[in-house]
């Protein structure tokens, strides 16, 4: 029984480690990637503003998540967070797409 308990524990720890790694990857990659894209697209002057937005969203988002979790349940808090991350991704992708199409337009390449 002790060996079985240890092996179950090892499996649980492994599953948690993989889940945390995947979460960290999904949560940690978009922001630095967006910062790099801003710099490479000539919008490096917006980087300090994006750091400010990120800091404010982190503070207000965590407080809002607690309030929603307590009042409506943590399932709703997670769903709201997923919706907001999705909306943010749509905004970033659309903005980057417009920057890319602007940079590839004949007017911008004919200088």
Descriptive report:
This protein is an all-alpha fold. Helices cover 89% and strands 0% of the residues. Helix 3 runs antiparallel to helix 4. The termini are far apart. The mean pLDDT is 86.
Main sheet attributes: strand count, strand direction, barrel closure: none
Mean pLDDT: 86
Q: Helix count?
A: 5
Q: Which percent range fits the helix content?
A: over 70%
Content-based structural category = mainly alpha
Radius of gyration: 20 Å
Which blocks of ≥5 consecutive residues have pLDDT under 50? none
Determine the strand fraction and express it as a percent band: under 5%
Oligomeric composition of the shown chains = single chain
What's the shape?
elongated
Total number of beta strands: 0
Whole-Å distance between the termini? Answer: 75 Å
Order of helices and strands: HHHHH
Question: Topology of this structure?
Answer:
Blueprint: H1 2-28, H2 30-40, H3 47-72, H4 74-104, H5 106-109
Helix pairs in contact: 3-4
Q: Could you provide a short overview of the structure?
A:
This protein is mainly alpha-helical and 111 residues long.
């Amino acid at each position: 029984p002790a060996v079985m308990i240890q092996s179950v524990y090892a499996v649980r720890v492994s599953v948690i480690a993989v889940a945390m790694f995947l979460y960290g990857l999904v949560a940690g990659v978009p922001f630095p990637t967006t910062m790099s894209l801003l710099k490479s697209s000539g919008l490096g002057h917006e980087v300090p503003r994006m750091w400010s937005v990120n800091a404010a969203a982190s503070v207000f988002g965590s407080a809002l998540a607690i309030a929603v979790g307590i009042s409506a349940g943590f399932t709703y808090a997670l769903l709201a967070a997923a919706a907001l991350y999705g909306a943010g991704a749509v905004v970033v992708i659309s903005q980057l797409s417009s920057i890319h199409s602007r940079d590839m337009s004949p007017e911008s390449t004919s200088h």
